[in-house]
Amino acid sequence: MKKVIICSLLALLCPRIGAQTSITPDVLRQLEGCYTGSPAEKAVRNAIAGVGISKMAVNQENLGLPDKNFSIEIKNTGITDQKSSGRCWLFTGLNVLRGRAMKKLGEKDFVLSQCYLFFYDQLEKSNLFLQGIIDTRKQPIDSEMVRWLFQHPLSDGGTYTGVADLASKYGVVPAEAMPETYVSNSTSEFCGHLKRKLREYGIILREKSEAGMSEKQLQALKVEQLGTVYRLLVMAYGVPPQKFTWKEKSYTPLEFFQTYCISDGEDLNKDYVMLMNDPSRPYNKVYEIDYDRHVYDGHNWLYVNLSIDELEDIAIASLRDSSQMYFSCDVGKYLDRTTGILDVKNFDYESLLGTTFGMNKKQRIETFDSGSSHAMTLMAVDLDSEGKAKKWKVENSWGAESGQKGYIIMTDEWFREYMFRVVVNRKYCPAGVLDLLKQKPVRLPAWDPMFNEED
Predict the structure, then answer these.
(1) Distance between CA 299 and CA 6 in Å, rounded?
(2) Pairing mode, if any, of strands 442-444 and 285-289?
(3) Residue, of 167 and 454, whose pLDDT is higher
């Protein structure tokens, strides 16, 4: 009620503005009247200028830390740190896999090499881009698809399908076999140079095509270009091992992956389902996003769109069976980094700024105001007497000094508003959800709002 009264008063104080196509001097004078310069407005303006909006908007009535007890919690595997890189998707996926490896190895302190799989991620994404340029060589350079390719030749972000395809193709290695480098911990500068080189190669491929070079010849040229990319990646990240010794036994990366990270016959793509809560599209439909993959011959991001209630029930079933999940959300919204709490009541921006922010989840997605931005490992839920979620807990990859010793707790209200994806084993999905996968997926373009890669 207080917010409504404040906004109503401001509306009365601000002169009515007539219809205009541009800001004329008369319109500007009317706009200037919307700031009254009252003592209250001056005080808020000075405070914001001095300490920033977030500190001023902290909701003092919501500072009580939620209890840390969870009715269902999977033992953690230890906090990792992606540092100044956009590899949360990779850290999250490998955190799930290393939890399995730790059980089989009997290790309490064990980490898989993020640098190893990231090397091949960047190599595969380079091939994905260059082959995409070859595939679209007949399209004009200002076509939407070609423009998109040149705008997004490569990134350090990604999704679960990248982890599944890369690990299944290249295997994994312990961190000691290929440790982090300065560049892997701070990816932006090198990625910028690599993107520039890829764009140059893309232009060359199009020019050679226009000059009459055949598709087979273009692909041979692409392989030559990838040779330079490979050399650059070695300089930045090191030489990926083809064989290594662990516990006095020799393994290839694929042997290590198949021995310690998956069950016999398990397929990280076929046996897992990505569930999405996207109210901007019909529920109970299957969607596939074009070019939303890491490997050219890999899997596009394919998901089943479910209501939030259905998605939560499946996630709870997975946690009940001690199976943690790849999880992604819009982590920047209402995060109190000091306490490690995600709660829509953490900050009262409306009272501070004297306006409302009234979009719902559907509208935020449609206007690009919200989307999946960060991946973490969903590991705990606290249930009420009726078995419904009250709060959730995730293992993050921002180091042990962030949040609650590296973990984040989110209220269920926040979860429903800003959670987007979970990846679960098919066995936790009801038959009705699995039946939906028999549908022909609705194909979405690469520039769809849901393309967002997790950083």
Answers:
(1) 51
(2) parallel
(3) 167
Match 């705008």 to its residue by tokens. 151
The whole-number pLDDT of residue 153 equals: 96
Residue 452 confidence class, pLDDT cut points 50, 70, 90: confident
Q: How far is CA 301 from CA 132, 160, 423, 451, in A?
A: 17, 8, 11, 9
DSSP state of 419: E
Distance CA 99, CA 377 (A): 11
Catalytic positions are 88, 374, 396
Handedness of CA 282, 284, 286, 292 (dihedral sign): positive
Cβ-based neighbour number of residue 251 at 10 Å = 22
Residue 379 corresponds to which tokens in the numbers above?
A: 């590991």
Mean pLDDT is lowest, of 52-66, 167-181, 264-278, for 52-66
Q: Which of 309, 269, 262, 307 is nearest to 285 (CA)?
A: 307
d(CA 117, CA 166): 7
Report yes or no: 233 and 123 within 8 Å, Cβ to Cβ.
Answer: yes
Burial of 276 (0-12, 13-18, 19+ CB in 10 A): buried
Strand pairing of 341-342 and 407-411? Answer: parallel
Per-residue pLDDT averaged across 349-366, rounded? 95
Q: Check: CB of residue 323 under 8 Å from CB of residue 337.
A: no
Residues 6+ apart with CB under 8 A from 117: 90, 94, 163, 166, 167, 170, 172
Q: What is the DSSP string of 149-188?
A: HHH-S--S-B-HHHHHHHHHHH---BGGGS---HHHHB-H
Closest CA to 72 of 319, 314, 310, 410: 319
Phi, psi of 327 (to 5 degrees): -140, 140
CB 109 within 8 A of CB 78: yes
Q: State the DSSP string of 343-380.
A: -TTSB-HHHHHTS-----HHHHHHTTS----EEEEEEE
Residue 97 CA to residue 104 CA, distance in Å, equals: 11
140: region left, alpha or beta (phi > 0 left; psi from -120 to 50 alpha):
beta
Alpha-carbon gap, residue 326 to 94, rounded angstroms: 10
Token couple for 173: 């290695």
Domains of the chain and any CATH numbers: 2-60 (no CATH), 90-260 (3.90.70.10), 272-451 (3.90.70.10)
pLDDT at 4: 47
Measured between alpha carbons, how far is 295 from 192 in angstroms, rounded to an integer?
20
Q: Residue 40's pLDDT is what?
A: 92
Give the per-residue pLDDT at 5. 47
